């Protein structure tokens, strides 16, 4: 079992610390430092963040997407698009500028390899690279000269080159965030479009561990087959997303991994260990082995600030340690023997969703 981040970590420092990134961004915009000096600050902050995640007990690390104020901007620019002035929220809760493409996307050179390499050199732990997927980008984009379906396909083909470059560079795990899948419902045409984007996005990557990130909500059962027919080896889903989220988790074959987004990014309050441990237990209760089970935040932590985010991720590390003390089901029952009658409202709510998710709708 392991803990990981689903998406962003706060860029700003903890209370009392200097805002190195914010000041470097301001000085670069004012012409007081050059891009090389700015990059040196970003690398120093990434090293700190990676260390923070590791000491908190996370085992699959990221750079927290702290290098940029807008996590989507470098990807869009690297594929020939532009950021507009309209702010949109990605399904994981990250706020970004809506992209616009007036021509089909084109990949010219690696976009995220340097960022991944810098984070990876700061630790002996596994470091994954998170990439927003083509279907989700197309849903967030402003209307442009390229029709949305064509844009989604074009993004998939361009991002295939990016994923191949990451794999060739040695990236052991690539998380593709397609959080917009929770908004499709039963629209067959949209599921066909998604399936086509994934076929093109993942071509030639059979030997790479690809993980699909699903954020904030549940997937309509209509989408189970299009998602599970893809080459993904693990799936990060929103454990707080209700019965449909758990229906999807229970549909994932046991030989594949599931990562439960059970850490609530919408609240600064400390999460209950019982909720996190039970989330791991429910992910395992159909025979899935511990090495294929993880726990994560259920979206971007940036909005709650660094202090609260650090406290919360430490709880994930602690929960994994507790869960590993014995057979996971027995450990969970020792903490709270009847989740449906628990005094903890979040645990009762998740238990009700799990119970409902065991049956078809």
Helix amount:
40-55%
Number of helices: 13
The major sheet is characterized as: 7 strands, parallel
Strand order of the largest sheet: 1-11-10-9-8-7-6
Structural class: alpha/beta
Q: What overall form do the CA principal axes indicate? A: globular
The poorly predicted ranges are none
Number of strands: 11
Domain tally: 1
CATH topology: TIM Barrel
What is the CATH first-level class name? Alpha Beta
Reported CATH architecture: Alpha-Beta Barrel
Description:
The protein is α/β, with parallel strands linked by helices and 361 residues long. It has one domain: TIM Barrel, CATH 3.20.20.210. The chain has 13 helices and 11 strands. It has helices spanning 20-29, 35-55, 73-78, 113-120, 134-140, 148-168, 188-201, 224-228, 243-251, 273-284, 306-323, 328-335, 345-357, and strands at residues 2-4, 60-61, 82-89, 95-100, 126-127, 129-132, 173-177, 209-213, 234-238, 257-263, 293-297. The strands form 3 sheets. It has a 7-stranded parallel β-sheet with strand order 1-11-10-9-8-7-6. A two-stranded parallel sheet has the order 2-5. The chain is globular, with a radius of gyration of 20 Å. The two termini are 30 Å apart.
């Amino acid at each position: 079992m392991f803990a990981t981040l689903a998406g962003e970590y706060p860029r700003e420092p903890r209370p009392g610390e200097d805002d190195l990134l914010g000041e470097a961004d301001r000085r670069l915009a004012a012409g007081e430092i050059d891009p090389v000096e700015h990059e040196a600050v970003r690398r120093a902050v990434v090293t700190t963040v990676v260390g923070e995640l590791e000491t908190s007990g996370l085992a699959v690390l990221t750079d927290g997407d702290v290098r940029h104020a807008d996590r989507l901007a470098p990807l869009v620019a690297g594929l020939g698009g532009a950021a507009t002035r309209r702010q949109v929220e990605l399904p994981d809760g990250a706020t970004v500028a809506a992209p616009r493409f007036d021509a089909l996307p084109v990949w010219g050179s690696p976009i995220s390899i340097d960022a991944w390499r810098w984070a990876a050199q700061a630790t002996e732990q596994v470091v994954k690279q998170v990439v927003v997927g083509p279907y989700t980008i197309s849903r967030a984009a402003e209307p442009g000269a390229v029709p949305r379906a064509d844009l989604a396909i074009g993004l998939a083909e361009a991002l295939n080159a990016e994923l191949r470059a990451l794999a060739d560079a040695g990236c052991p795990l690539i998380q593709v965030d397609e959080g917009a899948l929770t908004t499709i419902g039963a629209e067959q045409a949209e599921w066909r479009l998604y399936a086509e984007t994934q076929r093109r996005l993942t071509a030639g990557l059979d030997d790479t561990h690809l993980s699909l990130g699903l954020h904030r909500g549940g997937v309509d059962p209509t989408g189970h087959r299009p998602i599970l027919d893809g080459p993904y080896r693990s799936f990060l889903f929103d454990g707080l997303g209700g019965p449909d989220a758990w229906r999807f988790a229970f549909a994932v074959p046991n030989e594949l991994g599931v990562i439960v987004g059970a850490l609530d990014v919408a609240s600064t309050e400390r999460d209950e260990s019982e909720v996190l441990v039970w989330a791991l237990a429910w992910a395992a209760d159909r025979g899935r082995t511990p090495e294929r089970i993880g726990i994560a935040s259920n979206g971007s932590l940036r909005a709650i600030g660094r202090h609260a985010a650090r406290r919360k991720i430490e709880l994930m590390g602690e929960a994994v340690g507790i869960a590993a003390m014995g057979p996971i089901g027995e450990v969970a029952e020792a903490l709270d023997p009847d989740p449906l009658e628990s005094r903890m409202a979040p645990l009762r709510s998740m238990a009700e969703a799990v119970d409902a998710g065991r049956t078809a709708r």
